[in-house]
Automatic annotation (TrEMBL):
Organism: Tilletiopsis washingtonensis
One Pfam family in the UniProt entry: adh_short_C2
Protein name, as recorded: 2,4-dienoyl-CoA reductase [(3E)-enoyl-CoA-producing]
Stored CDD domains: TER_DECR_SDR_a (cd05369)
Coiled-coil features, chain-numbered ranges: none
Amino acid sequence: MSDEYKDPVVLRHVPSTAIFRDDIFKGKVLFCTGGGSGICFGMVRAIMAHGAHAAIVGRNAERLQKAAAELQQSGAHGARCIATPADVRKEEALREAVRKTVETFGRIDFVICGAAGNFLAPLEGLSSNAFNTVQQIDLMGTYNTMKATLDELKKTHGAYIHITATLHHTGIPWQAPASAAKAAIESLSQGIAVEMGPHGVRSNCIAPGIIKGTEGAERLTPKGAEDYISASIPMGRPGDVDDIANAGVYLFSDAASYITGTRLIVDGGALHGKSAWLPYPDSSLNQKEVASVVLGSKL
Ligand code: COA
Ligand code: NAP
């Protein structure tokens, strides 16, 4: 693999503030489940960098409080962040978190449903409680969050982003519970888009590929697989948290005001890279060598 391909500097993300004005979300309020860590923490940070206040939801109150303090430090235009601890499986706890958010900031414009649980386990090693636990956190958690915030979003003509995945777009071993849950969330999002469009509310999904430096990547990729994974991704690298954050800024911005009911896959082309039969990326970078083993090649 050429060094240029290993380090495709020109293909790296730029901060959203280099593209969008830093005050586009001034006066707006974000409610984000899973915002205390990983991908969703990065999304909240990016949206606050454009001026929005935020409330973040998770079960671990201490970690959440620390994350809220860190996020508040990095916000622009006086953006504030509060911790509203809740388990997304508990509808009343979520409603309380929403009440606290509206009491503090007066409104909710944007909702990210990002809380999730996942682990690698084969079907034969799953109990029904294990399967159900993932459905309860991912799918019912998304449903509960939507139900608790819908009235507020109708008032502000707001928008949802649900964080799904690409697992279920093909089928992948040892990930049946999360695949089933994320597929259902994408369906639910389409239902929200159709029923709530007439109220001015949008609903979309972001489907991340593998995002480095996150709990998900730690849990779901085998140790030592980074080179092999990078080689199968057309963009030549795993995603960064900021790649997903930038997609979130775009989908909440007015630039996406006609986009609803869809999913934005942010995976560096990984889904397509996986389907390569020829050696990859050599079929792009070392074509003569690959042609030598291809019957009838005229290269
Ligand atoms: N393989 C098989 N089953 C597993 C498992 C594994 N690796 N990990 C948990 N389970 C099973 C448990 O054994 C239990 O089933 P049982 O009662 O039949 O034994 C069931 O799942 C629930 O586990 P429990 O630990 O009680 O659930 P929880 O609600 O405390 O935690 C998890 C939920 C398991 C999803 C936990 O990993 C979590 O909190 N994850 C959040 C962070 C995360 O996953 N981040 C990555 C997002 S991609
Ligand atoms: P993460 O840091 O573990 O994020 C999950 C968050 O959800 C945590 O902050 C956790 O906080 C919260 N959470 C879990 N269960 C909860 C519950 N019952 N109630 C309330 N909050 C709960 O993992 P991540 O990798 O950044 O994943 C973020 C999202 O991206 C998830 O939806 C995941 O499926 C998706 N995704 C990740 C990747 C990846 O490569 N990382 C790829 C595709 C999709 P508490 O533990 O404090 O509750």
